[in-house]
Amino acid sequence: MDLENTKAQMRKGILEYCILSVLSRNSCYASDIIKELKEAQVIVVEGTLYPLLTRQKNAGLLSYRWEESQQGPPRKYYELTTDGRTYLADLDKSWKELVDSVNLIRTR
Amino acid sequence: MHGINIIIYLCIVMLHALNSSKLLTVVKTRLMKITVSINLGGYSFNIDEDAYAELKHYLKNLELHFAGEESSSEILSDIETRMAELFRIKITSYKQVINIEDVRQAISVLGTPEDISDKEGPSARDKFASPGYHRMYRDTDNRVIGGVCSGMAAYWNIDPVIIRVIFVALTLAGGMGVLIYLILYIAIPEAKTTAQKIEMKGNPVNIHNIKDSVKKEFDTVRKNMKF
């Protein structure tokens, strides 16, 4: 059994949830999301984020607008849509159920 | 004439000594290189030739990784834009050219296709496999003279020494070895592309193998470049 692979799978599973959570508090850029994830010890390479953000945008959970930047090319400024908020609320519920289940099994 | 020979010899010895010491590395990094001008995310950069090759290879790999996706061009564009952002930070009035270290740093920030854990498994990769050819090529990477013996050995999966011994024996016994070698040299093509090199060994050509092959090459070059 590959421990690293299992851990990676676990991380992969919560990543979308984390992205939506970060955006629920503040609209921001992709690099800000990465910074927040890092601070919360969720280490991912930036390349993992872009496809996820695009997929969530395509699913209508996020929207973005272009913001000019002094440091370089214009950047996408993401925010959660109403659909996104509903989706997040659902995930919140799911997450709570998961945590409760696992805790039950671990502490039995 | 004798004196000049000694001077030349001494120069060569000195260069060798400098070569193996740290002194010349400082000099080496300042020597002139060719740069390439690129448009990354709408911004213009000057980039060292070798850095450009590595960057191009990386972006190509990413393109293949996302090839099955609906918005692959959007994803790639986002990644390129981010790369341009990272590069812009590097450029100052003292440093006008992106070098290979900058590229590698940016790649480590953005992640290689292996690092990007957004897909299920190998299903996307096997789409690009081509039927396994097994062709004889000249292996110029592992050549002594022209890669004929290495290529033949790769095809049959034996030690090239065996083939070389046969050729030498044929040459000693009447000179046929030289003639046969020349004919084979002309007839057998050189394995230039990565796909050809894989075919030479008889492995099916797919993304896995190509990436592994190129990665191995890069690692070899990188190892040889450490002074």
Descriptive overview:
The complex is a heterodimer of chains A (108) and B (227). Chain A is α+β, with helices and mostly antiparallel strands and 108 residues long. Chain A has one domain (3-107): Arc Repressor Mutant, subunit A (Orthogonal Bundle), CATH 1.10.10.10. Chain A is built from four helices and three strands, in the order αβααββα. Chain A has a three-stranded antiparallel beta sheet. With 227 residues, chain B is mainly α. Chain B has three domains: 1-31, no CATH class; 35-119, no CATH class; 140-205, no CATH class. The model of chain B is unreliable at 24-28 and 121-131 (pLDDT under 50). Chain B has ten helices and three strands; from the N terminus they run H-H-E-E-H-H-E-H-H-H-H-H-H. Chain B is 59% helix and 6% strand. Chain B is flat. Chain A binds chain B through residues 8, 11-12, 30-31, 44-48, 50-55, 58, 71-73, 75-76, and chain B through 41-43, 62, 66, 69-71, 74-75, 78-79, 81-82, 84-85, 88-89, 108-112, 115-118.
